[in-house]
Amino acid sequence: MEKILYMMKQEGRPMFGKEVGPRLLRLQPHGLNYTNLDNIVSIHLSKLDKEGWLVRVSRRGRSGSLYALAEW
After folding, report:
1. CB-based contact 52:70 (threshold 8 Å)
2. What is the pLDDT along the chain (72 residues), one digit of tens a residue?
């Protein structure tokens, strides 16, 4: 979860959940050995949202939600 927060700070903008997995792979290409990275990222994004580290921003009439750091 710390890697997600670090990567979001480095990116400097709200991101879609689908964007987070590929960015994490670029950050640490050999350290993430999960069969379905999108599911793992989704679980961690939900946890970070519930704990108050991230804010989920829904977009009216569009699919997908943006995640932003709570400090933004």
Report:
1. yes
2. 888 999 999 999 999 988 998 888 888 777 666 678 888 899 999 999 999 999 998 877 777 789 999 887
3-state helix, strand, coil in the chain (%, to 5): 50, 15, 35
Helix (H, G, I), strand (E, B) or coil at 52: coil
CA distances from 50 to 15, 30, 36 (A): 17, 29, 22
Are the C-beta atoms of residues 20 and 41 closer than 8 Å to each other?
yes
Report which of 59, 42, 7 is spatially closest to residue 34, judged by C-alpha positions. Answer: 42
Task: Give the separation between CA 63 and CA 52, rounded to whole angstroms.
Answer: 23
Q: Give the span between the Cα atoms of 45 and 43, in whole angstroms.
A: 6
